[in-house]
Design a protein that fits this description.
Layout lengths: L2 H23 L1 H8 L4 H17 L15 H12 L1 H17 L5 H20 L7 H22 L2 H59 L5 H15 L3 E5 L4 E6 L14 H9 L3 E3 L2 H4 L10 E9 L2 E10 L7 H40 L3 H17 L1 H19 L5 E3 H19 L3 E7 L7 E3 L4 H12 L6 E10 L2 E8 L6 H8 L7 H13 L4 E6 L5 E8 L15
Parallel strand pairs: 7-9
Antiparallel strand pairs: 1-2, 1-5, 3-4, 4-5, 6-8, 9-10, 10-12, 11-12
Length: 567
């Protein structure tokens, strides 16, 4: 092998390595290789590898006749990457070019078409990731040997010997090494990107876990500042910026003297990311568009934050030097933005849920049955002449209920306070039932100061009276009992009324009841304490019903609510 031949081998392998590197770095081409069975993927791969194969005829050095060609490398790789359709079309294009432009034999052109097609059949059996460099080298070795064998059918003894010594051996070596090098380079780039992705995912999850408690309180200046500090600490970038749609919420790092929280957004790249709803990679100060003349930040990546399809802000990771935004920075920024978007959306949903529950609670507080009110007034009027003291007592109980319904009370109160309203309601109810209603209340001393959600007990008592005891003829008994079991507060409301039919009870348990009271209480308890708490209803018609309320036993609690909105 001469020095010129060795240089030509190096030149051909360098050309293949460069093509492999550019291919591996192209996300679009690699996506086409992973999912080749699509018209756009076929077309893209055919264009790429056809140019690669045809250019392979001219990969020799500028002096002398070419000794080595890499056209077969491009044809084989087209089949390995894109399947038989891509391999056939690239082989056909390359074969026609050889026959019409290079005046090669028809047999060689047909062989190239068959080589691309057969290599593509291998792609049907394995995924692109499963085709290792060693497998590709074996395919190239078989194809090159077949090409040598084909040449022997049409060559004389002298020309065959010259072909073997001058061209066949170097071409075979370059073909095998070229396919191996191409797949090795692509696999190395993919492995590197997987490492970047794993590091970015780990860092993003770490950031998400630390920012979650703050973003749960809402997407505002306070939560954004804490999140920006955490991101700045973990990512080691030169600056971190979090904005709303119109103003900067937090800015940590270099450039903070003119990018101030609470002021309007001044970076053109950030405004463009909000408007276009796509990531912006900044490689020069002109791309960033900061109007401050001495801004130290020159490169970075800006990613919009979403709630659904709506952009609510952006996050930016910035660097002070040009061309320092790496693939890892882009992946980290994208991963952080996705996780922060999810957290912001969950915080909004949680806020909406709390507002809905407050509205339902207010509706329940304001819900005074007109028939109950009308009957109570009539009863009071009847007692005004016959028993003024009784009428006065009933008026006092009614005033307690009216005050409870229309006043703004805390969301939590002690069981003793909750029972005071229930007692007022029962006092009025006894006037309707007369002597046939007995009420028994048994609570432990430890449970008197236990905290319970407001209006959690009264709807249970109302349900027992109206649907259990009132339709019953004869003696009626309503029992309320409270006790502590381990760390759980248990409250039972039991009646000896008509009970609930199995069909109706099944509807209530499934959440299909028309009543507001029971389902509202059960949903609120589940939302506040989790799925292990709430109401349990047991009924045995016509012997009565028992409703068990189960919540964590707490004597003191503090509910902190911080309001915040998206800017």
């Amino acid at each position: 092998m001469t020095v010129f031949t060795l240089l030509e081998v190096i030149s051909a392998l360098s050309f293949i390595a460069m093509t492999a590197y550019l291919t591996g770095r192209s996300r679009f081409i690699m996506r086409c290789a992973r999912y080749p069975f699509h018209p756009l993927s076929h077309f893209s791969l055919i264009v790429l590898f056809s140019l690669f194969s045809i250019t392979g005829n001219y990969s020799a050095l500028p002096w002398g006749e070419p000794v080595i060609t890499t056209r077969l490398v491009g044809v084989l790789l087209s089949g390995i990457a894109g399947g038989p359709i891509t391999g056939f079309n690239v082989g056909l294009i390359c074969g026609l070019y050889l026959a019409l432009v290079e005046n090669m034999s028809t047999a060689l052109a047909v062989f190239i078409v068959m080589a691309g097609t057969l290599a593509g059949l291998l792609r049907l059996r394995f995924s692109f990731q499963q085709l290792t460099p060693l497998t590709g080298a074996c395919v190239a070795l078989v194809a090159e040997l077949c090409q040598i064998a084909l040449f022997t059918l049409f060559a004389t003894q002298e020309s065959f010997s010259a072909y073997i010594m001058r061209t066949a051996i170097p071409t075979l070596a370059v073909g095998v090494a070229g396919v191996w090098l191409f797949l090795l380079t692509v696999n190395w780039i993919e492995a590197e990107q997987d490492i970047y992705g794993a590091r970015a995912a780990q860092l993003s999850l770490n950031i998400a876990s630390r920012t979650l408690p703050y973003l749960q309180l809402g997407f505002n200046t306070h939560s954004a500042t804490v999140a920006a500090h955490i991101i700045y600490e973990l990512t080691k970038v030169d600056a971190v910026s979090i904005t709303g749609r119109y103003k900067c919420l937090a800015f940590i790092g270099q450039g903070s003297e003119h990018h101030k929280p609470g002021e309007p957004i001044i970076s053109a790249a950030v405004k463009d990311a909000i408007t276009s709803k796509v990531m912006k990679v900044i490689n020069a100060p002109a791309d960033r568009g900061c109007p401050f003349p001495y801004c130290p930040l020159q490169a970075g990546v800006v990613v919009p934050l979403f709630t659904g399809s709506k952009v609510v802000g952006t996050i930016e990771l910035a660097r002070v030097n040009n061309d320092t935004v790496s693939e890892l920075d882009i992946r980290i920024a994208d991963g952080i933005a996705n996780l922060l978007s999810v957290q912001i959306q969950l915080a909004e949903l949680d806020e909406q849920r709390k507002m809905r529950e407050k509205a339902e609670l207010k509706a329940l507080r304001a819900q005074i049955n007109p028939h109950f009110l009308f009957n109570t007034i009539n009863i009071i009027m009847s007692f005004c002449r016959t028993d003024p003291d009784k009428a006065r007592s009933l008026l006092d109980s009614l005033a307690t209920l009216m005050h409870r319904g229309y006043s703004n009370q805390d969301d939590f109160l002690t069981l003793q306070d909750e029972l005071s309203a229930v007692t007022a309601y029962l006092e009025i109810a006894k006037s309707r039932f007369g002597d046939r209603l007995d009420i028994a209340v048994h609570i432990d001393d430890t449970t008197a100061n236990a905290l319970v959600p407001a209006l959690s007990l009264q709807p249970l008592v109302e349900n027992a009276l109206n649907h259990g005891l009132f339709p019953k003829l004869g003696h009626s008994l309503l029992s309320i009992e409270a006790y502590v079991e381990a760390t759980t507060l248990m409250i039972t409301v039991t009646d000896n009324g008509v009970g609930i039919s199995p069909e109706k009870l099944e509807q209530i348990r499934a959440g299909n009841s028309d009543g507001v009271g029971l389902m509202n209480v059960h949903k609120r308890l589940g939302s506040l304490y989790g799925p292990g708490y709430g109401l349990t209803i047991n009924s045995k018609p016509p012997f009565g019903t028992e409703i068990l309320l189960k919540i964590p036993f707490q004597v003191e609690t503090q509910v902190v609510q911080k309001e915040g909105g998206v800017s």
